[in-house]
Amino acid sequence: MGEKKGIIILDKGLKDSLGPDILCCAGSFMPLRK
Amino acid sequence: MYLSRYLKIYPHRQEPDYHLFYSTKKASIILLHESTLKSLNDGGLSPSDKDTLSELGFLVHDLNKEKEEMLSFFDEINKRKKFNAVLVMNLDCNLGCRYCYEGGMKGKFYMSSETADLLIDFIQSHCLADGKAVHLDFYGGEPLLSLNLIKSISEKLRSSTEKRGLSYTFNLVTNGTLLTGKIAEELASLGLQSAKITVDGPRENHDRFRPFKTGSGSFDTIIRNLKETCSLIDIQIGGNYTRENYRDFPRLLDYLFKEGLTPEKVYIVKFDPVTKTGGALPDFREGCESINEPWLFEANIFLREEIMKRGFHTPKIVPTTCMIELNDDIVVNFDGTIYKCPGLIGWKGFEIGDVTTGIKDYKESYNLNVWKKQECLNCEYLPLCFGGCRYMKLLRDGKIDGVDCRKPYLDATLEAFIKQDIKYRLKADQP
Questions:
Q1: How do residues B358-396 score in pLDDT, each as one tens digit?
Q2: Are B272 and B315 in contact (CB under 8 A)?
Q3: Dihedral sign, CA of B106, B107, B112, B118?
Q4: In chain B, which residues have their Cβ closer than 8 Å to the Cβ of A22?
Q5: Is the distance from CB of B173 to CB of B139 less than 8 angstroms?
Q6: Segment B6-22 mean pLDDT
Q7: Which of residues 1 through 20 in chain A touch B, CB cutoff 8 A?
Q8: Number of A:B CB contacts under 8 A?
Q9: How many domains are there within chain B?
Q10: What is the ipTM of this complex?
């Protein structure tokens, strides 16, 4: 049986360490911004 | 090094010797083998594994410093040179929606060309002079009832920004009945990127909740317009559901497919619960006041699954914020009064200035520090919440004297959302 990887990265997440992409806006009044 | 406090760990159903890790700060997702987790806890992690886990936001050098850094989370974002404004073009509409968010404030109130010119002066002196790009969200009422003014504002701002080498873009939040292909094409040439259009489920539900003022249904008109516009601009489909009707919403998705509005043609789909209006005379009494109403947990998980399994795109779970935290985000009402939240248009005590006199301090009126307390700073969900929604808190309690805590909601739903992302977006094996 092959050795299992210790860490499997499924998603590297946000590029910057900070920076929300999406406004929450009270149940999404607003469109998403690019 | 230490495990970040801003993460969640879930079991892996199919491979019990792995744990699913999600960083609420960076939205990164990994599977960590239990032997690696043991090494981490014993202090025996390899340097390369330490680097990997740090980069992804799972390991930090100092837990107290990590907590302090959250206090300045928005400082970096607020350095970005981008100005965003939601413009309430009017409070008029050609639909008679049962739950209208403008509530008792509806009427033939329109932004004048004089107010629009004052707004443009405001943007030029406060934003363009500082080298900021400009993005507007045209809102209402129904913004396309002010089509000529939208064009005029856009022409002027496009010209001003181009001269300075800056960008001007805009979106629409529209009921979709007036957004024909011809109008979309014209507006796209002026900077229109995207339109958020509301479709409340399948035809019979949508037409019951969102008829024209004449009483006739608006569904077919909207679908026709969606077909005309989906190749010209990004289409975001929203829909407002209630506890009684949310299970019918997937039939809308099947209908869109049948009509050729397949996932490649629709930028994003997201359904949200109807919320109560906050005007003096709320028209609709069945909306919710809190994301923590238990039926919402099931509704949100169900709807997100139905959207994603059909291949439609829906927002990832990433750190979110409210525009109140962003210095360069404002809402401008039709009369030029400025607010920090679209839900609070017209609410006394929440105006923060106007396009003539500028913006005054709003730290207290909007309680900017509401989440900057130990309970929130210690919470693993802080980056996904930041104190929740002040508007919802106001609707419930009449004041913003505390947070709109989202822990119950995230406890009940986050694991399911992440596993949906893994299955449908990342197309990895179901953990």
A1: 999 999 999 999 999 999 999 999 999 999 888 888 888
A2: no
A3: negative
A4: 315, 318, 320
A5: yes
A6: 94
A7: 4-14, 16-20
A8: 133
A9: 2
A10: 0.89
